[in-house]
Amino acid sequence: MKALVTGASRGIGLAVAEALIADGAQVTVCASRSVPEVRGAALARRCDVSDEADVRALFA
User: Are 33 and 9 in contact (CB under 8 A)?
Assistant: First the structure.
């Protein structure tokens, strides 16, 4: 399974990312202000999902 988790630097987003990783998923994490530090994430990026250019860059 592959997953993209936004808001992964803290709170619910971080908890969801960690749970998916623990279940064996390949997880890409992103957060709007900085690159999230999530142990075991396949990819970590800064991305403000309210900014179309950031979203396009994430998937480029």
Answer: yes
- Chunk the chain into consecutive blocks of 10 residues (it has 60) and report each block's average pLDDT, rounded to whole numbers: 96 97 98 94 96 96
Instruction: State the virtual CA torsion across 39, 17, 8, 43 in degrees, nearest 10.
Output: 60
SS (H, E, C) 9-44: CCHHHHHHHHHHHHCCCEEEEEECCCCCCCCCCCEE
| C-alpha–C-alpha distance, residues 12 and 58, integer Å | 21
Q: In this predicted structure, what is the pLDDT of residue 25?
A: 98
pTM of the predicted model, to two decimals? Answer: 0.89
Find, among 35, 12, 38, the residue nearest to 25 by Cα. 38
